[in-house]
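FAQ: What does a multi-protein file look like?

Like this. Sequence, then tokens, then the next protein.
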Amino acid sequence: MSDMSHAMTSAEYVQHHLNGWVIGERGTFMSINMDTMIVSWVLGILFLGAFYLVARRIKSGVPSGFQNFVELLCEWVDNTVADSYHRPRGFVTPLAITIFVWVLMMNLMDLVPVDLIPWTISLVTSTPYQDVYFKAVPTADPSLTFGLSISVFFLVIFFNLKSKGIFGLGKEMLSSPFGPWMFPLNIAFRLLDEIVKPLSLSLRLFGNLFAGELIFILIALLPWWIQWTLGGIWAIFHILVVVIQAFVFMMLTIIYLAMAQDDH
């Protein structure tokens, strides 16, 4: 266990790191997870600002430096979208880039040492470490992952209505997959299918990042001389997890939007 947490028991230390900075009554609908809001907004602004500067300073010819990285990333995402979404990509490709980069940046916060930010806040504000609650990984907060998945859910509904219209969508819900005479079962299956999409998106991302964060917290309980060895090994493995989870969230979003415009 780190020196700054020597006054805590192991259980108190784990509980301390699993509780974030909350305004309002913790666990209620009206509470606000301020650490999630701050970190996600800061990362989002950094992402948009960096890409905006690249777009403003873009040079013709062979790109170099960060411009080369951004162009390669955008080209890779556009090709990935084109493989699954066979319609004009003017909206979907920027959406996919935003999802992948933003979720990846939030996931990478899991590689920040678990005591670093609370210790820094404690030092700057002269607040006892035990009273500083701050979770640095927004995607380990189910409120954020559900918020992202619900946004995708509304986009799926919009794309359904845009491509099929109200009557076309209603006809599809009533008659697919078992024919019009089985419309109650068709509606039940369709509602279940639509509800499962945001649930699977949010829980998959949250579960993987929460598990990774918990392992880092448990490693921090070990003696200092072994923390860096185990933490380094887990961090190397976890890099794959954070990248894959950002990619999976992006790909499922693309697939759901493509399915929304296909005839079932």
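And here is the next protein:
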Amino acid sequence: MRTWRYAIASVLVSTLVTASVFAQQPTGTAKPGILTVGFIPDEDARAMVRQSQAIMDIVAKQTGLKVDAFVGSDYNATIEALRAGHVDVALLGPFSYVLATTQAPVEAFAVTVIAKTMQPSYRSIIIARNESPISALVEIKGRTFAFVDPGSTSGYMVPAAAFIGAGITPEKDFARVMYSGGHDATIMAVAEGKVDAGAVADRIYERGCAKGLADCNKLKIVCKSDPIPNDPLLYRKNLPEDLKKKIREAFYGVKNLPFGEMGTVARFDPATDKDYDPVRKVASALKLDLTKMK
């Protein structure tokens, strides 16, 4: 297994086009009496909602509101729902969060700490089938590859930067590039031979293997990234302060429960927007203008 460093290079990514000024949004929740919690579609939407129910129930009890879940059709859809004021609280990936802050008045208030690692971080990995001769980034050149989504940190931004740092331009140097729409879908695409290799989050890969999504005895990890800050929880800045306090207290009180694509969350630690400055620094080094990404 080989480890790559964040690359200082120019990366082309695709995401939502928005106006330079945030749209006006009403104060209070998106729907009267209801707190809408948004997720990005890293895994099957129904499974994500089902495995988040215990935490949703805690939040409902703490806030006195009914809690509904929203899972976007893709990463952009969830960010757009935040921008439009249709989602009140959301669990986003690190890069998705940074993008969201350029498009909607939102702020992080917690970071997930995964029970398995007890760390507020994870890694991006590239996987291939055992029978494949691929053993390094440069050996993927000329082959087929699956990213997750242009808004995904571990499923696009980090591996794309690494490829370009290795002198590889995916759209030009790969035989074919696909965007699977979810980490689970990428794992299956590699396992079923639809692509030669793909990028996913290590925690989702491990959980997918455990639940039999694919026969991981036939798969291998080619390389992995440095640690990436874990997914942040955020809320709209214009929610009432007393409601934001209740939301924070509800999540800070959670211990060892499943949530979204994170698996079992040991706890939620307090976080601020500045905790995700390292992601912004990578984007800056890559010469990405987050307000004009198309």
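Q: Is there any per-entry metadata?
A: Some entries carry free-text notes. For the entry above: Confidence is low (pLDDT under 50) at residues 2-26.
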